[in-house]
């Protein structure tokens, strides 16, 4: 919390608590069992990628990420993340793809635009600001942007754009 001290503010904590799902058994137990499985096997999958030389740095699925993925599967929901390890584990080891799949930030912008909550100019400016501020964007984000919006990503981006 020291990196984000405002997260410990009482007002924010009470808002978060009020927004959390209140789950009962057997769903709670199913989520915990599935999270344990997804984390264990997901980390083995990521370790194999490292051993095989397909990734350069070790990556792991956190317990929080595993719980998010397990919750989405148990509750038949989609997951929104730009973290490629979580998306990989979701695709390889879970059934979340049957419930709307794994969405990234560009997918969410697309849904917001389709729903009328965002116009093209706002979308373009949002992506441009992500790039200019050095936000970590999903792998192959330019190609994904082109596929979603049928246009090239915004120009005028900084030269040091990063991908997750």
Task: Report what the structure shows.
The protein is globular. The strands form two sheets. Strands 1-2 form a two-stranded parallel ribbon. A two-stranded parallel ribbon has the order 3-4. α4 links the parallel β1 and β2 (102-103). The chain folds into two domains: 22-103, no CATH class; 105-163. The chain is built from seven helices and four strands. The model is unreliable at 157-163 (pLDDT under 50). α2 packs across α3 (63-74) and α2 (27-51) crosses α4 (84-93). With 164 residues, it is mainly alpha-helical. It starts with 9 loop residues before the first helix and ends with a strand.
Secondary structure class reads mainly alpha
Largest beta-sheet details: 2 strands, parallel
The averaged pLDDT comes out at 88
Sequence of secondary-structure elements:
HHHEHEHHEHE
Distance from N terminus to C terminus (CA atoms, Å) equals 22 Å
Task: Tell me the quaternary state.
Answer: single chain
Low-confidence stretches: 157-163
Number-wise, the strands total 4
Number of domains: 2
Strand content: under 5%
Strand order of the largest sheet: 1-2
Number of helices: 7
- The gyration radius over C-alpha positions equals 18 Å
Helical fraction equals 40-55%
Anisotropy-based shape: globular
């Amino acid at each position: 919390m020291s990196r984000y001290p405002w997260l410990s503010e009482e007002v924010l904590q009470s808002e978060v608590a009020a927004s959390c799902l209140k789950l009962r058994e057997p769903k709670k137990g199913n989520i915990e069992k599935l999270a344990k499985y997804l984390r264990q096997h997901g980390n083995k999958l990521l370790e194999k990628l490292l051993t095989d030389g397909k990734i350069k740095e070790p990556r792991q699925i956190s317990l929080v990420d595993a719980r998010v993925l397990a919750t989405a599967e148990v509750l038949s929901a989609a997951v929104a993340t730009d973290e490629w390890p979580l998306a990989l584990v979701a695709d390889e080891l879970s059934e979340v793809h049957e419930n709307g799949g794994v969405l990234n930030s560009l997918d969410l912008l697309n849904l917001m635009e389709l729903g009328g909550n965002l116009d093209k100019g706002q979308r373009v400016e949002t992506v441009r600001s992500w790039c200019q501020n050095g936000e970590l964007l999903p792998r192959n984000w330019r190609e994904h942007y082109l596929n979603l919006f049928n246009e090239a990503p915004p120009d005028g981006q900084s030269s040091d754009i990063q991908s997750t």
